[in-house]
Amino acid sequence: MTTTPDEIDLEFVKLDGTGLHTSELQFGTWRFGKENEAGEIEIGEERAHELLDAYADAGGRYVDTADVYGGGTCEEWIGDWLDGRDRERYTIASKIYWQIRDGDPNSRGTNRKNLRHRLDALLDRLGTDYVDVLYIHRWDDETDARELMKTLNGFVESGKVHYLGASTHRPNAWKVARANEMARAEGWEPFTVLQPRYNLVDREIEGDYLEFARQRNLAVCPWSPLGQGFLTGKYDRDEDLPEESKVAASSRFRDAYLTEENFDVHDELDAVAAEVDASPAQVALAWLSHRNGVTAPIVGARTVDQLEENLAAASIDLSDEQVDRLTEAKASPYEGL
Predict the structure, then answer these.
(1) Quick check: is 69 catalytic?
(2) 43 forms bridges with which residues in the sheet?
(3) Options 62, 69, 97, 198, the catalytic residue
(4) What is the pLDDT of residue 39?
(5) Whole-model pTM?
(6) Residue 165 β-bridge partners
(7) Which of 132, 56, 149, 150 is nearest to 94 (CA)?
(8) NADP-dependent oxidoreductase domain: from which residue to which, for each copy (predicted)?
């Protein structure tokens, strides 16, 4: 099954916990303006706009960014792109957390001073009066949850933010649950959107985190749906990595992804991909979309061709048996609990 770019037409799905609907595949922009180790910009402004155009042409309406992507240039480029379009047709999400000024600890985390300054700055870069979803990019244990939720509630009441989200690397459902319980007790806005890492080989949210989201009707929009590129099929267990490869120089990536267990998962992924006439990346994305509790994966790309390949995953319909085979190819870290 081959879907051409002209045939891609993304549908809307309910952004659980909110009154919004989101594109079934959201577009992540973390490479926009990103400088690599060689000092080169991975995706410049012209290509960024081409990618945004391709996403919009496919019916995509949800753009995910963060105030540190490209040192802020990512948001500026999105703002320039939005300037020629109907802002109300697009859902824009951004994130705040990472330190932005050397030597200034108050320019990091979710303290009230930092949040207020950063929100105004990102709205200015985006050229908009509001963001639809504001995420805290990581959890900040140095800021009291009450201060955090009261500050975020003020953003919603001011109209600068519509909904609140928490983007996390590791499961910390109890922290979100505690903050939401506190917010609801005070009549404040709770977190309604979660953004964890989740894919066929990174399964750490399968436990209390994903179950918590389902039980509380929270939207789950996973990042890294292709396991930092591992699930695209470009790595072979029997071939040495080129010495110049960034992956070859990253022991963290090798240890986390280039394992026999993960390659066994990839064997099953390749088998299902052959059955449905799709690429491994497309099937990996389709598997996520079939997972109970997952709202909409966040996809990214370096080129328009890559983006269109990823977006075509929305047209792949896996059988229950195929979903089960992929799921069972790697045991959940909480299996048996």
Answers:
(1) yes
(2) 32
(3) 69
(4) 87
(5) 0.94
(6) 135, 193
(7) 132
(8) 24-329
